[in-house]
Amino acid sequence: MMQMEKTFTVRDQDTAHAVGNEGVHVLGTPILITFMEGVCHEAMVPNLASGEGTVGTVVNIKHLKATPVGGTVRIIARRVGGEGRRHLFAVEGYGDKGQVLSGEHERAIVDLERFLEKTEVG
User: Fold this and answer.
1) Could you give all domains of the chain from N- to C-terminal order, each with its CATH number?
2) Of 15, 37, 92, 105, which is the active-site residue?
3) Which residue among 7, 17, 25, 29 is the active-site one?
4) Residue among 41, 54, 63, 92 flagged as catalytic
5) What is the pLDDT of residues 98-119, one digit of tens each?
6) Is position 37 annotated as part of the catalytic site?
7) Which of 2, 13, 78, 110 is an S-S bond match for 115, by CB 3.0 to 4.6 Å?
8) What is the pLDDT of residues 44-60, one digit of tens each?
9) Whole-prediction pTM value?
10) Which residues pair with 103 in a beta bridge?
11) Pairing mode, if any, of strands 86-95 and 72-81?
């Protein structure tokens, strides 16, 4: 079973303020998603073949509670389904005052060289 748990400490650069929502000095949703995607990716790494990577394909989460700078968020990702190269994770996150994240995230396994050849660069 693919599962991973990781704890993050919120820094100034992780706030909504830092990503453009001026004056909102709590964990920004885009950063929470970045944390969550990283945890899901790390859960998949042991199962990847040489030359493979993962990419996010679906994000469906609720950001339930604000986390201040200096606070921590523990993110838990557990594979709950998928088929072939696609893997679906249930994701949860907890801070000092309860649950801050709930939802699902899908990642796909890709051949990195082939995937990058298909992208538009410069």
Assistant:
1) 3-117 (3.10.129.10)
2) 37
3) 29
4) 63
5) 999 999 999 999 999 999 998 8
6) yes
7) 110
8) 999 999 999 999 999 99
9) 0.94
10) 61, 91
11) antiparallel
